[in-house]
């Protein structure tokens, strides 16, 4: 069972180093064999983002229905414990959040979680009114935990996540084997002209806790692999479901944790079905 715990709302400097590496079949700790037999998995979940439901000139209803079908099919074939929709559920139309929830997301055959993106124009009160939880919260699954936080305001302006909340959550989960952090907009600009955030305090928090194994982001529809900060801390992306730009395909990311706490993640091209950008942490 997933238990959601809410915490309340600290300062450090810059990045120790930045790596931009190709992700296809790139593995950490390559000397260790990875076991992904379903019966030996502790957790298997998917991340999808950037649905942009309601964007004029796009097939947003078809794209959203396809996402639900793809994830339900994956769950039927391989079992998913959870789906995380990582921001930009709607396109500048917060009034459509109840519609996408009831018409589409509630038809997922697996528990799902959501977090706002910059196009959702949502704050804590709105998110809670639609999804019955706030725009920053945590999830627990045995000895694995998730910390999710908003990275935009109601005008779509990019904002650093609530670092006091993140720190309190990571302190709370210090004894967990694995912690994942979910942020729609990455907290670091790898390239000068990228539309990401520059949140050195957030990055330092990710680097400080050894059980924080990865961060997952949406936002840039062209990114579907992994980038690194510090001593090879991974930030994974998952392409896009909707919108009028991005990768040629539409897809989502799968993460598996086995009984040895080995982590394996790969990108799914849901239109054509190969695995892309496979990584083991």
Automatic annotation (TrEMBL):
One Pfam family in the UniProt entry: Metallophos
Keyword Signal: yes
Domain Calcineurin-like phosphoesterase: 43-221
Keywords of this entry: Signal
Domain of life: Bacteria
InterPro entries hit by this protein: Calcineurin-like_PHP (IPR004843), Metallo-depent_PP-like (IPR029052), STPP_CPPED1 (IPR051918), TAT_signal (IPR006311)
SUPFAM superfamilies: Metallo-dependent phosphatases
Signal sequence, start to end: 1-30
Keyword Metal-binding: no
PROSITE patterns (UniProt xref): TAT (PS51318)
Gene Ontology MF terms in the entry: hydrolase activity
Xref: Gene3D superfamilies: 3.60.21.10
Protein name according to UniProt: 3',5'-cyclic AMP phosphodiesterase CpdA
């Amino acid at each position: 069972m997933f238990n959601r715990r809410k915490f309340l709302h600290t300062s450090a400097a810059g990045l120790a180093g930045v790596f931009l590496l190709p992700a296809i079949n790139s593995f950490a700790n390559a000397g260790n064999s990875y076991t992904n037999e379903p019966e030996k998995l502790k957790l298997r979940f998917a991340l999808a983002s950037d649905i942009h439901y309601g964007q004029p000139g796009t097939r947003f209803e078809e794209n959203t229905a396809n996402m639900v079908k793809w994830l339900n099919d994956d769950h039927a074939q391989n079992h998913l414990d959870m789906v995380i929709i990582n921001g930009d559920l709607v396109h500048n139309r917060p009034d459509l959040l109840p519609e996408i929830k009831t018409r589409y997301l509630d038809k997922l055959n697996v528990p799902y979680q959501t977090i706002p993106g910059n196009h959702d124009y949502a704050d804590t009160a709105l998110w809670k009114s639609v999804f019955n939880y706030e725009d920053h919260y945590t999830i627990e699954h045995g000895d694995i935990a998730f910390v999710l936080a908003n990275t935009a305001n109601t005008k779509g302006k990019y904002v650093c996540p609530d670092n006091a909340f993140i720190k309190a959550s990571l302190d709370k989960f210090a004894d967990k084997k694995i912690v994942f952090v979910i942020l729609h907009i990455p907290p670091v600009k790898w390239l000068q002209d990228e539309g990401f955030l520059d949140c050195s305090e957030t990055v330092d928090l990710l680097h400080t806790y050894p059980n924080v194994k990865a961060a997952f982001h949406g936002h840039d529809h062209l990114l579907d692999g992994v980038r690194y900060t510090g001593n090879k801390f991974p930030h994974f992306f998952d392409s896009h479901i909707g919108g009028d730009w991005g990768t040629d395909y539409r897809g989502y990311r799968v993460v598996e944790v086995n009984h040895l706490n080995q982590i394996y993640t790969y990108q799914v091209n849901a239109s054509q079905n190969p695995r892309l950008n496979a990584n083991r942490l």
